[in-house]
Amino acid sequence: MRIAEMKTGTTIIDGKAFAAEMRGRVAEQVSRLKTEHGITPGLAVVLVGEDPASQVYVRSKGKQTAEAGMASFEHKLDADTTEAALLDLLGRLNADPSVHGILVQLPLPRHLDSARIINAIDPAKDVDGFHISNAGLLATGQKAMVPCTPLGCLMLLKAHLGNLSGLQAVVIGRSNIVGKPMAQLLLGDSCTVTIAHSRTRDLEDIVRRADIVVAAVGRPGMVQGSWIRPGATVIDVGINRVEGQDGKSRLVGDVDFPGAAETAGAITPVPGGVGPMTIACLLANTLTATCRANGLDEPEGLTA
Length: 304
Ligand code: NDP
Fold this sequence. Notes:
By secondary structure, the protein is an alpha/beta fold. It has ten helices and twelve strands. The strands form three sheets. A seven-stranded mixed β-sheet has the order 1-2-12-9-8-6-7, with helices on both faces. Strands 4-3-5 form a three-stranded parallel β-sheet, sandwiched between helices. It has a two-stranded antiparallel sheet with strand order 10-11.
């Protein structure tokens, strides 16, 4: 992995470079699938409504899917699309053999029941790993489609630390898309895991004991530098837009980066840390789903 050293000796984990390498490995495997088996992995992305952030994500996913040599199918539906119409589309995508992965961009408009929609995706094509079957498989230590952001965090951790067995980890945040699956993955790699949330008491003490800190809260700079144990590895999932002193907006994480970088052994920056890993893992999951659907060996190092 490409990493940079700070003056303090802290490693800045370069998620952007790691993600680029990973996308390159996916593209190689896609090319091999095409030439050796005549199979082109296909990813369908469904966007309902016109949420600006979702539009940016969907565009970026489509672009990177095509760059990896995969087929990209975009379905843009009006904000007032009915649940029945969306379920009908998912039924067709589930049945379409050229579609190996299906992603419904969240959040959905409020009149749609997200859980019902996500659970209507064929679990084998659920490349976001949000289907209840995949959550259950992950929780019981079985082969699952693993949610992309926590998978990306795990890959960065393993690339930096190697074996995670026996390490104390704290995951701050218990959402179904980041916190809970992250904790399951760390447990699967034999960490001793604490899950913290808004009702947690003495968060500072818990963080101070941790070898690994994963922050997935959505509160700018909430985890203070002084909480970090010397040498700990800090993975900052948060993406928060804040206004700087110059009046310009910029992205920051959930961790006070300058403070934490003084004591941490390694830390991911925001932007350029976890963020780029999410789409790289989405492509990896689509490749994995394609291999599984065709009874082919899964490429090494692209899943948990
Ligand atoms: P959610 O809002 O769903 O969950 C936030 C979690 O933080 C909740 O479990 C909440 O606790 C907990 N929390 C809130 N306040 C505190 C507090 N003071 N102390 C401790 N815990 C607290 O967010 P997500 O999990 O969806 O996302 C988290 C962050 O990660 C966001 O900034 C998001 O933008 C970012 N993100 C980044 C991605 C990427 O690609 N890099 C992908 C997905 C998310 P409780 O459950 O008690 O309310």
